[in-house]
Amino acid sequence: MKMLVWFGLVLGALSAAGNVFVTKPEQTVTLECGVDTFRGSLEWRRGDQRIFSVDGKTGFKRKGTIDIVSRSYDRTTNLEVRRVKLEDAGKFTCVADGNTKEHTLLVVSVSTNPSGDLHLGSEVALTCQVSGLDTAPAVHWKGPDGKLNSGSLKSVARSDAGTWKCEFSHGGQTYSESIDIKVTDPPTPPPPPPPPGPSQSSPGSHKTTCPNCTANPPSGASDLLGLKWWVWVAIGVGCLVMILLMVFVICLCKKIKTKKRRLQKMRNSRQFPKKYCQCNRPTAVGKPQQGRRREKPSAPPLQPLLIE
């Protein structure tokens, strides 16, 4: 009976144990739940915090509030995480219809110091950081030739160019992440300054072989009267603006004077109106008013006749 109990516990532990997924920062990783379909519900959690849960009957989806939620997408029963960060590493739990699967996400960051292409003869340190485990595992490097290396290159050679692998062990399994290294020639140093000529003074001496030469030559051949070329350009532009302004003022004054003259003429013409010739003409007989009968003129009085 005890054997059956222990056997059941072992099977339960094995069924609950999930997979280990390894990725690099800024990459996309897909965490497999371990089941293909579900009927009741599906939930993904990181640690104790929910990422999302789906109701299989209604299709209703609930999301959590942690940072990884905005970069997580459900793919049937799997979880896809984009733009992975170092802080995303850790334990992930998938619960499908009551069956729990616990997975581990390891984020491995590999780099060189200094970064970029390596120069021949330079000293370089290889860095391998594993996030997602309670205890940092021991790591070791393998060069392009397959030999183990501590990750410190005292003098870079051309044979160091190629793919370097950072390997570590967890749960009885060995995992690795790689980085490509390029080796280039060191930068060419600048040429040395030319030696002083016979006409140049030796260091520490202020004497010159040219009696008419000055110790401090002019700052620029384009200087005129001690002023830079752009100063003369500014002066020329300022003078041109002043001339244009003066022409504008003169034209405006003439225009104002012309308007004043016209206005004065108009005022004078209104004060002395023209006189027209008025001829002595008989006044027209007024038109009789309508509606009234015209009266007849009375007869002149009779004058007595004188008899001689």
UniProtKB/TrEMBL annotation:
Q: Which residues form the signal peptide?
A: 1-18
Determine if Oxidoreductase is one of this entry's keywords: no
Question: What's one Pfam family the UniProt record gives for this protein?
Answer: ig
Name all Ig-like domain ranges: 27-111, 121-180
TM ranges are: 229-253
Question: Which residue stretches does the UniProt record annotate as biased composition, category Pro residues?
Answer: 186-198, 298-308
According to the record, the residues making up region (Disordered) are: 180-213, 279-308
Q: Which UniProt keywords apply?
A: Immunoglobulin domain, Membrane, Signal, Transmembrane, Transmembrane helix
What protein name does the entry list?
Ig-like domain-containing protein
